[in-house]
């Protein structure tokens, strides 16, 4: 997506939003980007859906010469519909 956005001369998140027809997927992209502070640096974003759930994740990765790449921070927005088992939902989405 980022490569297509670059070819079109459009910022990557804006490119995704312009081409989305699914309101739930759009909502998780907007929520993750908003909480992350999208547009205030050079970050990555991805999203998708499976089995009725929607997710978008923003990540900031630092790469310095001679050092391994390091994940600085990650923000995820997850929309799963009605929650039947809150503990299972936490287990699927929280890093421990």
Description:
Helices cover 38% and strands 28% of the residues. It has 96 residues and is an alpha+beta fold. The protein has one domain (22-93). A three-stranded antiparallel beta sheet has the order 1-2-3. The protein starts with a helix and ends with a helix. The model has no long low-confidence stretch (mean pLDDT 90).
Task: Summarize it.
With 96 residues, the chain is α+β, with helices and mostly antiparallel strands. The protein contains four helices and three strands; from the N terminus they run αααβββα.
Mean pLDDT: 90
Q: Please, how many domains? A: 1
Strand elements, count: 3
The best one-word shape is flat
Write the layout of secondary structure elements.
Layout: H1 2-8, H2 12-18, H3 23-36, E1 44-50, E2 53-62, E3 70-79, H4 86-93
Antiparallel strand pairs: 1-2, 2-3
Helix pairs in contact: 1-2
Task: Provide key terms for this protein.
3 strands; flat; 96 residues; alpha+beta; 3-stranded antiparallel beta sheet; 38% helix
């Amino acid at each position: 997506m980022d490569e297509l956005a670059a070819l079109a001369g459009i910022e990557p998140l804006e490119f995704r939003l312009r081409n989305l027809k699914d309101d739930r997927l759009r909502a998780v992209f907007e929520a993750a980007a908003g909480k992350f502070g999208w547009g205030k640096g050079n970050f990555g974003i991805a999203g998708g859906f499976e089995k009725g759930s929607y997710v978008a994740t923003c990540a900031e990765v630092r790469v310095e010469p001679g050092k391994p790449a390091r994940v600085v921070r990650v923000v995820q927005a997850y929309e799963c519909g009605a929650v039947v088992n809150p503990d299972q939902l936490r287990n699927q989405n929280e890093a421990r």
